[in-house]
Amino acid sequence: MPSPTEMMSPTADLTALGKRARTAARALLRASHAQRVAALHTLADLLEQQHETILAANAEDLARGEAAGLPANLLDRMLLNPERLQAIAADTRIVAELPDPLDEQYDFAVLPSGLTRYRQRTPLGVVGMIYEARPNVTVDAAALCIKSGNAVVLRGGSDIRASCVAITTVIARALATAGLPTDAVQSITDPDRDLVRQMLRLDQSIDLIIPRGGASLHQFCRQNATIPVITGGIGVCHTYVDPTADLERAVPIIYNARVQRPSVCNSLDTLLVQRAIAAQFLPMVAQALGAAGVEFRADETARVLLQAHPDAAQWRITPAGAEDYDTEFLALILAIRVVDDLEQALAHIAQHGTGHSEAILTNDQAAAARFIAEVDASAVFVNTSTRFNDGGQFGLGAEIAVSTQKLQARGPMGLRELTSYKWVATGDWLVRS
Amino acid sequence: MPSPTEMMSPTADLTALGKRARTAARALLRASHAQRVAALHTLADLLEQQHETILAANAEDLARGEAAGLPANLLDRMLLNPERLQAIAADTRIVAELPDPLDEQYDFAVLPSGLTRYRQRTPLGVVGMIYEARPNVTVDAAALCIKSGNAVVLRGGSDIRASCVAITTVIARALATAGLPTDAVQSITDPDRDLVRQMLRLDQSIDLIIPRGGASLHQFCRQNATIPVITGGIGVCHTYVDPTADLERAVPIIYNARVQRPSVCNSLDTLLVQRAIAAQFLPMVAQALGAAGVEFRADETARVLLQAHPDAAQWRITPAGAEDYDTEFLALILAIRVVDDLEQALAHIAQHGTGHSEAILTNDQAAAARFIAEVDASAVFVNTSTRFNDGGQFGLGAEIAVSTQKLQARGPMGLRELTSYKWVATGDWLVRS
Description:
Two copies of one chain form a homodimer.
Chain A: H1 4-8, H2 14-30, H3 33-49, H4 51-67, H5 72-78, H6 82-97, E1 105-110, E2 116-123, E3 126-131, H7 136-147, E4 151-155, H8 161-177, E5 185-187, H9 194-199, E6 208-212, H10 215-224, E7 237-241, H11 247-259, E8 268-274, H12 275-291, E9 295-298, H13 300-307, E10 316-319, E11 333-339, H14 342-352, E12 357-361, H15 365-374, E13 379-384, E14 401-403, E15 411-413, E16 419-430
Parallel strand pairs in A: 3-4, 3-6, 4-5, 7-8, 7-12, 8-11, 9-10, 9-11, 12-13
Antiparallel strand pairs in A: 1-2, 2-16, 14-15
Helix pairs in contact in A: 3-6, 3-8, 4-8, 6-7, 11-12
C-alpha cells in the first residue's frame, strides 16, 4: 500500500497506480462476499474510532480553503464534523448489509447444439471516480465499489486532498483487516490538475469513469476520456400540467419539485401548463411558490395571466428569455410556458430537456401513457414530483451517481449498475458444427 | 430523405444529418412493433426484387477495387451476388420475426413513500455504425436497429460506397412503406476520411458507436470519440487443458477452435497445457492440427516434448517468441505453453488475454468453478470450443457485434443489448418528504 506521503507525491505514476488497481480487481474476483461485507463494517467502525485524525485533516483543508477565500457554501460542502462522520459510517453499514450484487446468474438456456449458457454478474473491474468538494464521496464511492467487487481509483478535488488522504488510509486498514488488497481503493491526491486528464486516458486500467460534479466536469471528461464515461449532472427538468389534472393536488407537487431542495439536479426548472387551465392554475402556483420566494420567468401568455391577478404585485414575474428554457436554475427560479397541448409539451421537452427527470400531472390515462412512451429521459413521472429521481427514493439502497446517458445505467446508479456480466457456456466436450 | 446524390455529396453536413437522426429516433418512439416488423419484411422483399440495381452498384465497387489492386480476399468480402443477397434477405426476415425487444417492463416495486416504479425497456436512440468492406453489414445493422426502435447512422468503408448507397435507398423505401421516417437509416458515403472523425464527436446526436473491423479501427474510435464506443474485435483466446481432462475428447475441441474458421476473433490462439499431461497430450494435438496445416509456436518445454516424437518431422514447430502470446493470429498458427497449474494458466490469461473467449477443458468441477469465477472475459467456456462465442450460437437470434468491453454489453450484442431503459414512476399526487 502506498503511504500517504507517496500518495501526495507530485510525481504520481498513474500507469503504475492503474496496474495496481487492475491486480487488485483480479484479487477481488477471488474474495468472498463475507470479506467484502467485513471490510465495510470495519471501515464504518474505523471512521468512528479515527474521527480525530480525519477531522484534523479536514480542518487542514478548511483552513487552506478559508485562506484562499473559498465561498461559504463550498466550505460547508467540504466540512466534516462528528455528526457527518457518524452519518457516513451509518450509510456504510447500510451498504454492507445490502444483498450481494454479484450473486446473480440469469438467462439460462440449453441450445440445440447442446450448449448450456447463462449470464453471470461480474464486477466492472476498475472504476474511476472524479469528484469535487465533498469528502463523503470518498467513502460512498469506496463502499459501493468494494461491495460490488470493483477496485476504484478516486480523484477528489484538490481542496479536500488532506481529507482524502486520511480517509483513504482508513479504508486501506479496513481492506487489509478483511484480507482484501489495499490497492482496491487508491486516491490520487497530488493537486496537479493534469493528472485528471491522464487518468481519463488510462483505458488499459480503468473500465469506467464516473464524474460527480457540475456540467463543466462532465463535459471535460467526455471530451478527454478514452474510457467510457457515465455522464449526468445536468437536469433541466419539466412538469407538464394537463387539463384533466387535479389542480389542487398539482400545486404541492410543483412546490415540492421546485422548492424542497432547489440546488439539486432533479428539481423542477420549467412548468408547462395547458392553455385551457392556465388562467385558473397559474395564480394557484404563483400563490404557493411565490410565498416561498420563487421568481417566475414566464412566457407572454403566462405573464399576462399572472399580472392580471389581484395578488400580482406580490410575485416576482419577469419575461422568459429564450435561454431560460435551457437553464438548470439550481435556485428558486421557475420558467413557465403555456402550451397548446400534449404534443407541444412533448416537443418542448424533446428540444430543451436534458434527459433527466420529466413529469406529467394528469387524470387522463392515455395522456400519461403517451408521455411515458415518448419522453426520452432517465425517469418519467406521473402525478409525482421530479424529486423522486434518486437511488434512495427508488429503493436501490444507495447510489453512486445519476446517469443521463443511456449506456449501462440510466438514472440512479446503485450496486447493480456497478456490475457487468460474463457469458458462461458449458458443454459435454462440444464443438461448433 | 436525402437523395443518393446528396448522400454522396463531398460537403456532407454531419450536424444536420445527426439532427435528422435524432428526429427520426423520436418518431420511432411513436411507432408500433407491427410497423417495425413490416419495414423489415418489405426490406427483405425489396432486396430480392431490386437485386439488379444493388448488384450493379456492387459491380461498380468491385471494378474500382480491382483497378486499385485490392487483394482477392478483400474483394471477396466486398462481393454481393444473388445467393448472398438472398441470404441477407432471409436473415432480415429472421430478425423481423424475433420478439419485440422493447416489450419489457421489469423491477416493479411499490416503495414505502407510496411511489410505484419500474424499468421500461427503451431504444438507445441513435446508433453510429462504422464498418469496413462488408456491404451486408449495411442491412444487418439497419435491420437490428429498426427492430429495436433505434435510428442508425451508417458509415461503411469507402470501398463499398456505391453498394451502400444502393442498399440505403432500398432501406429508405422499406421504411417509408411502413410509415416510418426514412431518416431512421442514413449512410455517410462521402469518401472523405475526416468524416469518421467528425462522426465520432456527434455526441449531441449519436448515443453509441459500434465499430466493426480490425484493431486499428477500434483504437481509432476509442481515441477520437466523445460518444461511448463498444470496443471489441480483438480476441487473443486461450484454452487451458487441465490434467483431469478427457484427452481424446479434448483434441477435437482444440481442432474446432483453431481450424474451423481461423480468421475470426473467437478462434483459439494459445493452448495452455498442464505439465503432467503435456508429454502425452501435445503429440495428440500436433497430430490432429498438424495434418490441417497448423504451425506451432511452442515454448521450450512443449518444443522439446514435440520434437522428441517420431512424427515430429511432419510438424511445423518454431519457438514461441514473447510477442506470440499477445498476438491474434487469424491464421493456422497455434501458440503453446506448458504451465505448472491452474494458477499459472489464470495468470497467463490475465496477462495476455483480451477479454474475449477463454476455455478450460477439465473433469474437475472445482477447477472449472475457479476458472469461471476468475477469468475476466466476455465468455468463459467449460469443455467446449471458444468458437461458440457468437450471437447465433448463444441463441440471441442475431448479433451486431461482439463486445470485449464491460459496459452495456459484453460478448455477442443482440437486440436486447441495443436497448436501454427508463425509470417510470407513478404516484397518487405524491410529493417527496
